[in-house]
Amino acid sequence: MPRKVNYGVDYDEEVNDYEGYDYDYDYDYDYDDDIEDNGKAPQSEQETSKRGLWRCSVCTYDNDEGLFACDICGVLNPSKTGTNIDKQTANFNDMNFSRVSSGITGKNGLLNIKSNAERSDVSSSLMLKGKQDSFDDNNCSKNKAHNVQSSLKISDGSFATMPKGRHHNVDEGSCSKNDMANILSSDKSSHSSPALKLKGRHEITGDSSSSLISGGKPQSLNSSLNKMALGEGSGFSNNVNARGTRSQAEYKPEKWMLNDQAEDTLIQLNLAIVGHVDSGKSTLSGRLLHLLGRISQKEMHKYEKEAKLQGKGSFAYAWALDESAEERERGITMTVAVAYFDSKKYHIVVLDSPGHKDFVPNMISGATQADAAILVIDASIGAFEAGMDGAKGQTREHAQLIRSFGVDQIIVAINKMDVVDYSKERFDLIKQQLGTFLRSCGFRDPSIMWIPLSAMENQNLVVASSDVRLLSWYHGPYLLDAIDSLQPPTRDLSKPLLMPICDVIKLPSLGQVSACGKVEAGALRSGSKVLVMPSGAVGSVRSLERDSQACTSARAGDNVAVSLQGIDAGNVMAGGVLCHPDFPVAVAKRLELKVLVLDITTPILIGSQLEFHIHHAKEAGRVAKILSLLDPKTGKVTKKTPRCLTAKQSAVVEVALQGPVCVDEFSNCKALGRVFLRALGRTIAVGIVTRIIESQE
Ligand code: GTP
Ligand code: MG
After folding, report:
1. Mean pLDDT of the region 671-689
2. Given phi > 0 = left and psi -120 to 50 = alpha, else beta, which region is 493?
């Protein structure tokens, strides 16, 4: 059933004459004449006057002219696209990597992270594996979750999840009830995608834990959001004016917060495994975990046996990550699986993403935590080409998304080389075609590593290949070497705490609730006071777990489960944010964005409905205003209030969301200021939050 995202619907008079609109005329418009200063134009469009710099049209950062793409947000440098590709940069394959043996210490066996829980129709989120020991008591029922959340079926099966009842809450000024009714009437949650589930391997949850609805207290969630919308109750209102009583400049981190190496010698690196469906992401992840001692031999035998019994012998390694019955039966990953291994240099958090296009929202929610990515390519004839297909290929969409998340280091794992006899020609062809595309996404040559491998035949993974067909021409690093050569991510340690919540685990019998996610800024430790937004509830940290091990503190970059005390479980929800009590994150439902429109075929109009993605939150929304078109080269406003947006245009828009989200301006916190707009099952635009507009209640 087609999704009722209706580009063609007229929401106001401006678009009534849309059909006869002459695009060519519009583009040839005399921009100078058109630009009048009505006081609403974005402020950051002054042309950069400095020589040797180009100004990003989206985030307005002044980049070195030599860069292909904006250093901050990845938008392309228009003067560098096309054929003008910088050839000076050396490819990693040409570099000399020392072939150290892995030096990897598999810590106490298997630690990947997935829930065995059957996928429910609710949005669920990341579950840290191994939590079964401490959280096996979760008895929040799926049914409750069902009660709380509906999944919005989109034509091709992807979903925008919305807490039930939000539509009663629609801000009429920004998003009419009728508009939302259109969306809601297409509600088909029959086979929904969980929003995001980092899988905890055993029966962590029953799952309810998860997601926006965070098990079991639908009313409290909705009412907490409602309260926020109304600015009542919690002491916080949902507008930017409510953002704490103190400015961030006043924040002084304590000494322990800055001590990055207090507990670990290894730096944590969140590594997203992305790529087209069936390219071998889970097989590769499972193989790595096995080789590095995180999956025992016994366990591997079990997977092999079970997979064979179901006639899916080739999926044995993937089964280590695809744990739900449905994933195994369908042979596809549906939710993000999280697992851990240590390399010489890093404590790696593997985020194995689903490749199927129906589950891109889940991929987004997981990969949004990534510091770096492995883009897995199926080298087989036809398979690489399918991934590059403009309409259906997830190689393209994943690469674009991951770059938009701010990930600028990527390892391209050209997998299934066994199928093409480890052919150098095939490798070179893929490298050449995909390389051009990756550069167009904003990846720079020195930050792309190309590794030919076979996950199935264990070639070039944690030691150099032993196959002469590969050895005869490939002398670069093996995969683990490449991972160790990634640059360590920088962390925002000196800012107040911000931890977007990707999952919530509840233990009602013990009255405990844990929030899971990646700390984006600041730090916390046992006893720290925290504020949960948007509910506004304040409590303290009872304990912390990282990689299923108790730890006393966590800092920016760490992926942790934070057990909270003094907070009602209903006030903690996926899509929310843990923050410092004196520096609450803003909560808003009307935002100004700078966006870059991707390859769309249907123009974006005022009134176009969309799914709005920001960290782990998703909301239905609509384009309330198209404020201006920007010159891609200078970021200068070229036209005010255009009627529509088409492919590859940069623009400033205002979106009105159905419900409020925790948000920050991109200039203040990248992780909370990056957004993705999706419609009809595809990402239609990426962007950043430039202004948080006060709610209209
Ligand atoms: P999604 O998560 O659903 O997108 O799939 P995936 O990318 O995780 O692929 P998965 O690991 O499930 O593997 C898909 C199929 O490819 C399985 O049948 C694997 O056995 C096969 N496969 C994976 N790696 C290799 C490889 O190196 N060589 C060969 N010949 N087959 C492989
Ligand atoms: Mg998979």
Report:
1. 89
2. alpha
- Please give the Cα distance from 109 to 105 (Å, whole number): 10
The angle at the Cα of 229, spanning 228 to 230, to the nearest 5 degrees, equals 90
Take atom 22 of ligand 1 and give the residue whose Cα is closest.
280
- The answer to whether the CB of 353 is under 6 A from ligand 1 is no
What local confidence, expressed as pLDDT, does residue 436 receive?
Answer: 95
Spatial CB neighbours of 88, under 8 Å, sequence gap ≥ 6 = none
What is the residue type of 236? F
Q: Residue 188's pLDDT band (boundaries 50, 70, 90)?
A: very low
Strands 372-378 and 410-415: parallel
Q: Whose CA is nearest to atom 10 of ligand 1?
A: 280
Separation between Cα atoms, residue 379 and residue 614, nearest integer Å: 33
Q: Identify the pLDDT of residue 58.
A: 62
- Global pTM exceeds 0.70: no
Span 414-426, average pLDDT? 97
Computed over its alpha carbons, how large is the radius of gyration of the chain? 24
Distance CA 129, CA 205 (A): 11
Is residue 284 predicted with pLDDT exceeding 60?
yes
Rounded CA gap, 540 and 401, in Å? Answer: 35
| DSSP one-letter string for 226-279 | HHHHHT-SSS--SSGGGS-SS-GGG----HHHH-TTSS-SSEEEEEEEE-STTS
Could you report the per-residue pLDDT of 622-674, keeping only the tens digit for each? 999 999 999 866 678 999 999 999 988 989 999 999 999 999 998 888 889 98
Q: What is the DSSP string of 407-464?
A: ---EEEEEE-GGGGTT-HHHHHHHHHHHHHHHHHHT--GGGEEEEE-BTTTTBSSSS-
**pLDDT, mean of residues 347-365:** 87
Q: What is the pLDDT of residues 67-122, one digit of tens each?
A: 666 665 566 666 654 333 333 333 333 333 222 222 222 222 222 233 332 233 22
Cβ of 395 closer than 6 Å to ligand 1, yes or no, is no
Task: Give the 3-state secondary structure of 630-673.
Answer: ECCCCCCEEEECCCEECCCCEEEEEEEEEEEEEECCCCCCHHHH
Pocket test residue of 197, 278, 358 for ligand 1, highest count of atoms within 8 A of CB: 278
